[in-house]
Amino acid sequence: RKEVEQDPGPFNVPEGATVAFNCTYSNSASQSFFWYRQDCRKEPKLLMSVYSSGNEDGRFTAQLNRASQYISLLIRDSKLSDSATYLCVVTIGGKLIFGQGTELSVKP
Amino acid sequence: GAVVSQHPSWVICKSGTSVKIECRSLDFQATTMFWYRQFPKQSLMLMATSNEGSKATYEQGVEKDKFLINHASLTLSTLTVTSAHPEDSSFYICSAKTWGLRAYEQYFGPGTRLTVT
Question: What pLDDT, on a 0 to 100 scale, did the predictor assign at position A2?
Fold first, then answer.
């Protein structure tokens, strides 16, 4: 079983749509939680941290449920520039553990 | 912000040859560097962690004799893929962080795309 699992997509949505990504992790010792964004053939970039209380950064809202080991990312009012692969990431023992990513394609 | 560079950005080599990839921290001291590999449509997989002046710690399943890592200075780590084969074709990404920072506070290089023919 993968340590971090995501629906690979792709998610094809029109501009302005709201889209939600889900992620589950298997190791209860996971310490910190993040969403990264990766553009094609580029390095991953930190999008936002995820907390149990939920956190928002503009159009992006992230949520963590430790009991069910579930992480989510909601993108409101999608822009063309949001097209990318979104990686769910946890830390275990000082290491970053990446999910395979969910591909998002926002169309005009 | 902290900048990490990688060289080359892409390389094509013949099967059986060795390829060296450099990872440099340009404006900070990288006490720890990480090497990842990413196959198409798959997650980044940590290959090894190296601390400056020490031997690298390899993840389970990664052959240390095939993937040679050297972290001889606080600004440079190298990954050498020895006797490369087509199945080693992948996107190799390094990241670096300085002592005391947390795991997520690592800065990624732009990656090196290796194609072995």
Answer: 84
